[in-house]
Amino acid sequence: MSIGSVPLRFKVEIDPERCMKCGRCVENCSYGVFRKESDNIVVANSRACVACHRCLAFCPRDAIDIYEKPTDYRTHPVWTREVREAVFNQAKTGRIIVAGMGNVLPYPSIFDRLVLDACQVTNPSIDPLREPMELRTYIGKKPAALSVKEKPNGDAELLTKLAPNLKLETPIMIGHMSYGAISLNAQTALAKAVTKMGTFLGTGEGGLHESLYPYQDHMIVQVASGRFGVDINYLERGAAIEIKIGQGAKPGIGGHLPGEKVCADVSCTRMIPEGSDAISPAPHHDIYSIEDLKQLVHSLKEATEWKKPVFVKIAAVHNSAAIAAGIARSGADAVVIDGFRGGTGAAPRVFRDHVGIPVEAAVASVDAKLRKQGVRNEVSIIASGGIRQSADIAKIICLGADAVYIGTSALVAMGCRVCGTCNRGTCAWGIATQRPELTKRLDPETNAVQVANLIHAWTDEIAELMGAAGINSIESLRGNRDRLRGYMLDEGLLNVLDVKTVGA
Amino acid sequence: MAALRIDAKNLHYTPLNQQIRKAVCDGVKEIVIDNVLGQRFIADGLRGDDVTITVNGVPGGDLAMFMSGPTVIVHGNADHAPGNTMNQGKVIIFGSTGDATAHSMRGGRVYVRDSIGYRGGIHMKQYKEKRPILVVGGSARAFLGEYMAGGLLIVLGLNGQVPVAERGVGSGIHGGEIYVRGEVEAKYLGVGSKQLPATAEQMEMIRPIIEDFAKSFGLDPAPLLKEKYSRIAAASARPFANKYTPE
Ligand code: SF4
Ligand code: SF4
């Protein structure tokens, strides 16, 4: 007996009263839900709908409704719909389930159980309109002490040699999403936005497309286990270099860009033949230990004549603090901690949902460990994976981060509806696709403005939050647990985060 | 311009590389480095198609990493990962090398007269005219050519050695090819790799490379070319195509 089909995930309806038969839904849906039949527009295949809302966004008459899970299973607290449907899928195929975007399990959010402080009476808040607020952030090594010499004319001369740092006008950067995972138009929009905002964008491990060279001073080039697109030109172009060890959406495993997505242009930035699979192995095969990592960090610095900061990105896992302590000693300038809610173009479901830990706990424990060992100044901490709003940024900075990488939220600013089908290569918004008819939907100019607006708005909100807390420099917010309280967090977690409970 | 001699005794790798870079920048074509003892990253990221660097001694890890053009000749053994992610140029080693030799190499040639360690030629790849070549005179350890995505790897098994007698040969290989003198015992072949006797046409293709290798070390290529070779390549072009299903 075959398993048959599972209930619809989304049911799409057109209100015939409202529909003016303009056909925009037919044109816009890249999943083939709508069809023109004689002079009518019909929902031909609700099953194909992923709720990317492209049709809704472009229907001039609000004639389309999408219902999630219109048919119920018998409710069961353990045998959820997702669990049952995964079994059906694997019983049919015998394969590993992959999906796009981040963790979908309803783990409680730590961010949402942390609250920020504000001044009342005893010390005044600061009005960011009136007073200067310092959000500029430097990423890289800071000297433990400075030695200066007084010149005969009374000026001071700095004797300490400073390591190269990245100068960010806001603590918000955009993380690594490769060309291949997202379209060139999407990358271009992000690159324009960070250039405008005085911050940085990661290239991902797909190399750097020629058309992005004008933005290279705002780009962090990535060296991952597949070493795609990595040569000396690429390394020299980046403002910084990031070694990707792991990713929050899929800790411990490599990546796999299927041949279908390796079009002519992607093939040229990755430097692999068109149509060939781009396989990134799980480990870097020249790094099997912290000593080997140190060797790669130093070889990248040596190749670029010690002019660029080198970051190391790891997925947030149980042992992040000890790993980060090793990274701090490897000569790296920043450690990126990518939490288990981080997005991805494609990840096995079992990893996306079950491996890794939240970035809040990982950053707090990394910061504590590095301080305890007296090496916190040796590396900056960049938090990524699951940053959804400015409050998350303020909170994670209080927990010890220097800056954040955003990913999904920058895509949402370009229209992404978090439909989670980035792995299929048919993103109707022209983001997670390489199909020319879809990528051309995304205009880099307007989307750059939207992404820049988002960074601008969040930066303003952070300034307001800081002002309310009586803080006028981001440095005073960093690691400032005193301005955070845990709300309904258990004692163990409060200890890890090193924050007090509300009321205390 | 005259050859430049650098004495590397007690010299850290950074000032050593700075001297090399400066010399290349000034137009020096021949550099000889004496007393090399464990200095890592020699010629790391260095450009210069017509530059030859002779290393007398034993260089440390990541020799010629990201290098793009020069020729490096080592009179001695080399440590971990010579030719790592190398782009172009030539590395000739009169001795043996450590693990991950020619790791992720994307162009140029690495010749090792004697033997290499584990994970040789792992994840080599090619693109258009860039086709990396690793030739090993002696033998290789386990995981040879694993995840290979392109390029050419030849193991000659000179002096009566078995080219590879350890597991994981070509596991996950999805491009490129490995040639060994004689053949690899079937039990040592990795998942997704396939071994066949080299055809006459394939032998013609590797002939000039073996000749060049032999010439580099003053060996007679004739006996090498008389032998039978096997070719190991991907069993299918898309080894992982059937592993995944969408959610
Ligand atoms: S976009 Fe809206 S109005 Fe136009 S055909 Fe579709 S449902 Fe009707
Ligand atoms: S990028 Fe596109 S496919 Fe991916 S979640 Fe967003 S809208 Fe969906």
Number of DSSP helices of chain B?
Answer: 3
**Average of the residue pLDDT scores of chain B:** 95
SSE pattern of chain B, N- to C-terminal: EHEEEEEEEEEHHEE
Q: What separation lies between the terminal Cα atoms of chain B?
A: 65 Å
* Computed Rg of chain B: 18 Å
What ions, cofactors and ligands are bound?
A: iron/sulfur cluster
Helical amount among residues of chain A, as a percent range?
25-40%
Biggest sheet of chain A, strands in spatial order? 11-21-20-18-17-14-13-12
- Distance between the ends of chain A: 61 Å
Tertiary shape of chain B: globular
The low-confidence runs of chain A, each spanning 5 or more residues with pLDDT under 50, are: none
Helical stretch count of chain A? 16
The Rg value of chain A, from CA coordinates, equals 24 Å
How many E strands of chain A? Answer: 23
Give the mean pLDDT of chain A.
95
- Low-pLDDT residue intervals, each spanning 5 or more residues of chain B: none
Protein described:
The complex is a heterodimer of chains A (504) and B (247). Chain A is an alpha/beta fold and 504 residues long. Chain A contains 16 helices and 23 strands. An 8-stranded parallel beta sheet of chain A has the order 11-21-20-18-17-14-13-12. A 3-stranded mixed beta sheet of chain A has the order 6-22-23, with helices on one face. Chain A has a two-stranded antiparallel sheet with strand order 1-4. Chain A starts with 9 loop residues before the first strand and ends with a strand. The model of chain A has no long low-confidence stretch (mean pLDDT 95). Chain B is an alpha/beta fold and 247 residues long. Helix content of chain B is 15%, strand content 28%. Chain B has 3 helices and 12 strands; from the N terminus they run E-H-E-E-E-E-E-E-E-E-E-H-H-E-E. Chain B has helices at residues 13-25, 200-216, 221-226; strands spanning 4-7, 30-37, 52-58, 68-75, 88-93, 109-112, 133-136, 149-155, 175-181, 193-197, 229-234, 244-246. Chain B has an 11-stranded mixed beta sheet, sandwiched between helices. The longest helix of chain B has 17 residues, at 200-216. Chain B is globular. Classes of the chains: A alpha/beta (504), B alpha/beta (247). Chains A and B meet through helix 3, strand 5 and helix 7 of A and helix 1 and strand 12 of B. Strand 5 of chain A pairs parallel with strand 12 of chain B. The site of one iron/sulfur cluster (SF4) has 15 residues of chain A, from loops. Residues 14, 19-25, 41, 59-61, 63-64 of chain A line the site of one iron/sulfur cluster (SF4).
